[in-house]
Amino acid sequence: MSIFGKIKDSIFGKKPKPQETPATAPATKAAPQPAGNAWADAPVVEQQARPVIDIENNLDNMPGADRLNWRTSIIDLMKLIGVDSDYDSRKALAVELGREDYSGSAEDNMWLHRRVMKELAASGGRVPAEFLD
Prior knowledge:
two-stranded antiparallel ribbon, globular, DUF3597, DUF3597 domain-containing protein
């Protein structure tokens, strides 16, 4: 699993394994369409809305959040959620998120923290704007 995947699973929670749909429950339903429509008989698959995850709240409620500065430190964020925060892990995460020249500098770590927050937001998380700048 990717490092970002581990971060996301730690914050969002792991997705439950899909359960088999009972044979009596229809998986699709026909959508009403006006006559003459080529798609009139096409089944429509119903999708469930994805819940929005409050990233800040989830992280604040984790054990150790009061001792770690996860809001600005990628190292503390990774420690809080139980993901290895050593240089090699941070470098691998940076490469995964598109930065090949990661050196571990303070500037690189600030970029990495912002990038992780942007990816969490893109994955359905609600991230305060100050974490995205």
